[in-house]
Prior knowledge:
By secondary structure, the chain is mainly alpha-helical. It has one domain. 82% of the residues lie in helices and 0% in strands. It is built from 6 helices and no strands. It has helices at 2-19, 27-41, 49-76, 81-97, 102-117, 122-158. α5 (102-117) packs antiparallel against α6. The two termini are 19 Å apart.
Amino acid sequence: MHTLIIIVVILLLLAGMAGTVVPFIPGIPLMFIGIAAYGWYDNFQTIDAQYLIVLACLTLLSVFMDYLSTMLGAKYFGSTKQGTWGALLGTVIGLFLFPPIGIIAGPFVGAIIGESMAGKDSRAALKVALGTVAGLFTGMLFNVILAIGMVLSFIIKLI
């Protein structure tokens, strides 16, 4: 049974790591669930409540940063509501129709289309698209660093 639990936790951690760069996969929350599940299995001997509270707070911070970094990147460069919606729709379409390049190209093209529909010229639309992608990558970088920290701390707890 122990081996099965470890395999499930590893799969959740790997899926979580993938989710830090693939939009719409809740990366850090999946990792938290995996670590919490191991804690529950282990009767919270190795993974204690204090550790889980810290990870829960970091998980909430990652969700907030995901949203905030993309929105701030777009807003900083002057995005309209149409540009924001275009980036969101572009992300969904790009992710499913053109993986993996669609993760980058989708929000970029979507923001340009949205900003063009809002009446902005191509230069302004390009500026917003670049800001949107910069915000997206800032959030991804934050989550990748956080995910690596979570995995390392989990391994250290197990050793």
